[in-house]
Amino acid sequence: MEEEKKTVRAVERALDILLVFTTGSEWSLTELAAKCGLHKSTVHRLLATLEERGFVMRDEATEKYRLGLRILELSAHFARADDPTIGLIGEMEKLRDQLGETVSLYIRDRLERVRIQAVQSRQAIRRVAQVGVRLPLSVGASSKVLLAFADSDTRSALLNDPAWPAGLRDAAYERQLDEVAAEGYATSFEEREPGAAAIAAPIFGRSGKLFAALAVSGPSNRLTPDVMSERAPAIIGAAKRMGALLD
């Protein structure tokens, strides 16, 4: 039993190392150890195994590690049919072309939101949305949608989580979420970072369960509060059409 626990722990640590590469393409041994909270000797041993198996590779000149070709081989065998967002890309592209801004899909993972699909704006100055990026659930238009349209038990559990920001546990914030639910969309204007704005609406599956938040984001000088209000019906309509495409 003790040996089994050690094996599982080693797998968890190896996966933690690989997950660091979701936030950057190259990392040194020291950086990886710091990110994972592990001793350098432990990380070095795990990297040696990952390198031998082709999951990471080491640049001899920089002494930094990056993902290996095995990752590409795995992703090549990921069945497109297993990704429900593939069927939504057409509607996302139509919305991008209609509004001229970047379109993204977000889902909730505990106290974070994860971008699971994106269609980039064609404008010279635009918001570039990378798939797989994790952002705090406590800020942003998509976050408000994912909270506002969650069931009451889920919302209560999240807002009462010890890690949830204390300043967002009051009645005023709850009322804001209720307003989002009543209006059918949420906006954010330079909330997460200066110069950025977004508007989001919920996508529901045919069963009525919340699937994702559909977001349109761009520079705040283009997506002003008035402009976002004008564009809300288009985004809500697109979200409804996408929901009808889900199984």
TL;DR?
This protein has 247 residues and is α+β, with helices and mostly antiparallel strands. It has nine helices and nine strands.
Structure notes:
This protein is an alpha+beta fold. The chain has 2 domains: 2-75, Winged helix-like DNA-binding domain superfamily/Winged helix DNA-binding domain (Arc Repressor Mutant, subunit A, Orthogonal Bundle), CATH 1.10.10; 80-245, Beta-Lactamase. Helix content is 44%, strand content 21%. It has a 6-stranded antiparallel sheet. The chain has a 3-stranded antiparallel sheet with strand order 1-3-2. The longest helix has 21 residues, at 225-245.
Write the layout of secondary structure elements.
Elements: H1 2-20, E1 27-28, H2 29-36, H3 40-52, E2 56-59, E3 64-67, H4 69-76, H5 89-99, E4 102-109, E5 112-119, E6 134-136, H6 141-148, H7 152-159, H8 171-183, E7 186-189, E8 196-204, E9 210-219, H9 225-245
Antiparallel strand pairs: 1-3, 2-3, 4-5, 4-9, 5-6, 7-8, 8-9
Helix pairs in contact: 1-2, 1-3, 2-3, 5-9, 6-8
